[in-house]
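Consider the tokenized backbone below.
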């Protein structure tokens, strides 16, 4: 049960960092001195089609990573390392 709590807490901190970073990126887009926080890149495969004449399927996977997400994920990992040892 102890390992489950640590794993759940780790996932919670990582997902919180991703969501908070995305929110910060959208808020900082139009702010004059913090526009750089919304800078980011798209990574992944946009569209990959396989056609076997009878079956056709498309695969794609894209991640939009911003600078603010990298900062908040790092902060979440530091915070987890402080709090995680007490779980």
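A designed sequence for it:
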């Amino acid at each position: 049960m102890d390992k489950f709590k640590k794993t759940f807490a780790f996932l919670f901190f990582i997902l919180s960092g991703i969501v908070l970073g995305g929110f910060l990126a959208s808020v900082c887009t139009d702010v004059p001195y913090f526009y750089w926080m919304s800078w980011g890149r798209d990574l992944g495969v946009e569209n990959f089609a396989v056609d076997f004449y009878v079956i056709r399927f498309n695969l794609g996977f894209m991640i939009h990573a911003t600078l603010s997400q990298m900062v908040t994920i790092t902060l979440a990992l530091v915070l987890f390392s402080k709090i995680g040892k007490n779980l």
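The chain has one domain: 2-81.
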